[in-house]
Design goal:
alpha+beta, 4-stranded antiparallel beta sheet, 5-stranded antiparallel beta sheet, 33% helix
């Protein structure tokens, strides 16, 4: 049973509350947390609601990064002009989450801290190279999103002591694009069979940078560095896209699943989805494959 529900107005006040009250835990949208409480998987005595902390809701472009507050909802991310223009993979991923009701209250930080490997916006944030800024008793730290996972459903962010304040996505500059693709039994309100996000940068007809993230094929969003590295320095071509997609499929390790399909099927679909995502990101820069 929850005995107290508190509303801090700043990050420092939130951390003070977490420290002062035994059994306290951060809540924002609560779309996952309230299910865990109802099913008695978690039993917090105090909930610290961070939705009134102004800086957690900011989306802004800084000198070399794009800063996205941890309290930004999926709807806000999906409709933000800045995110749609500069980080389209994140906007596309956010628009794929749950239902409109879930998107209106669920937050990007919640999607990450819940630590499910196929969380749509988490997959996009990993592909985009985002870092999480985490505040705790020892001060603040910045950690790559892909390094926040202890295992399925287990986050390195301790929501009884720490607060994920914002995500920082590095700007790559001219010639960059990103894309997100998803395979699911139906278009809405279903878990993804697979999802893929990519970010690329092309200069003078060659791939300068590339990041490819696939899920759920591991206990956390799988950043396939080898597939990205296969593109870097190469001339943009359909053949190289096919090569990168094949590498991602070979390295992916999905399990047989009654909900998501067989291992063999999903490995083949990794190849298809990585190819589609890379084509979409490349086509966003110029029509190469018409």
């Amino acid at each position: 049973m929850v005995y107290s529900y508190l509303f801090p107005n700043s990050v420092s006040e939130c951390l003070e509350m977490l420290s002062a009250y035994e059994g306290a835990r951060v809540i924002a949208g609560g779309t996952d947390l309230m299910i865990d409480i109802k099913k008695k998987r978690l039993r917090p005595r105090v909930l610290v609601d961070v939705t009134r902390i102004p800086e957690l809701n900011l989306i802004q472009e800084e000198e070399d990064t794009i800063s996205i507050g941890a309290g930004v909802t999926h709807t806000q991310a999906a409709t933000s002009p800045l995110i749609r223009r500069k980080l389209p993979a994140l906007a596309q991923a956010a628009s794929s989450v749950g239902s409109p009701q879930i998107r209106n209250v669920g937050t990007l930080a919640g999607n990450v801290v819940n630590a499910q490997p196929a969380a749509d916006t988490a997959v996009a944030l990993v592909a985009l190279g985002a870092e999480a800024e985490i505040w705790g008793p020892q001060g603040k730290s910045r950690v790559a999103v892909e390094d926040l996972y202890e295992g399925v459903g287990r986050s390195k962010v301790d929501s009884t002591r720490e607060l994920l304040k914002r995500f920082l996505v590095p700007r790559w500059g001219e010639g960059e694009a990103s894309a997100f693709v998803r395979l699911s039994p139906r278009r809405a309100l279903s878990l993804p069979i697979l999802n893929v996000a990519v970010r690329v940068q092309i200069k003078d007809g060659r791939w300068e940078k590339a990041r490819i993230c696939v899920a759920p094929v591991a206990p956390k969003p799988f950043l396939c560095r080898e597939a990205g590295e296969a593109l870097i320095g190469a001339k943009v071509s359909q053949e190289k896209i096919e090569e990168a997609a094949k590498i991602a499929a070979e390295l992916a390790q999905p399990r047989d699943s009654l909900l998501r399909g067989s291992r063999e099927y999903r490995k083949e679909m990794v190849r298809v989805l990585v190819r589609r995502a890379l084509e979409a990101a490349t086509q966003a820069l110029y029509s190469l494959f018409n």
